[in-house]
Amino acid sequence: GDMDALCEELGDLLLQVVFHARMAEELGAFDLAAVATGIADKMERRHPHIFGDAGPRTANEVVDAWETMKAREKPRTSAMDGVAAALPALMRADKLGHRAARVGFDWPDAAGARAKVTEELGELDRAATPAERAEEMGDLLFAAANLARHLDIDPEAALRAATAKFEGRFRAMEAADPGFASRTATEKDAAWNAIKATGQTARSDEPD
User: Fold this and answer.
1) Is the pLDDT of residue 17 over 60?
2) Strand, helix or coil at 16?
3) In a 3-state reduction of DSSP, which class is residue 81?
4) Residues 18-37: what's their mean pLDDT?
5) C-alpha distances in angstroms, 201 versus 3, 6, 71, 74, 161?
6) Contact of 101 with 60, CB cutoff 8 Å
7) What is the pLDDT of residue 204?
8) What distances in angstroms separate CA 35 from CA 17, 28, 118, 165, one per listed residue?
9) pLDDT surpassing 60 at residue 208
10) Nearest Cα to 196, choosing from 186, 188, 184, 206?
11) Cβ neighbours for 151, distance < 8 A, ≥ 6 positions apart
12) Which of 137, 145, 169, 170 has the fewest beta carbons closer than 10 A?
């Protein structure tokens, strides 16, 4: 919601694009105009429902068509190819789940995904060592991402919103009581419930 900060971050992003394009130009590979032309051509090519004659499509049909054209342009040996390893873990889990679903490896509805979350919770409870608990926690998070996908929820966005809500409420507790850190667990719990009931939040001043 901070337009000045957004402007600054977009400038940082633009610098990287210009910087790398300039290095490529000096090597005789391509220039900034080629970058702009390439993305414009790709957006037109992969959105035939807008720029071509494919006709109206649902959001899911648009995504499926995009992936089909992408696969045709960049052949894969696996449905998992092309999902960047550097993505945030939750976002990558969501994308891998979508890829598996496109080749029919999926539950027919959200009930199956929900049951998998329950199953993974049980396995986490039974884990006996730190390594086993870490593995089962990963499985639980992956199952939660799949459940979110079946409910048409972006898990990355949902977690960001939940994290922001928690942080806002916690900061509000601190702001309301300078001695909050020294309170008992019972007092802290009561303070949390009071802040939650009033809907108060406090904004972070930390930069991203």
Assistant:
1) yes
2) helix
3) coil
4) 97
5) 20, 22, 45, 46, 13
6) no
7) 67
8) 9, 14, 47, 39
9) no
10) 188
11) 110
12) 137
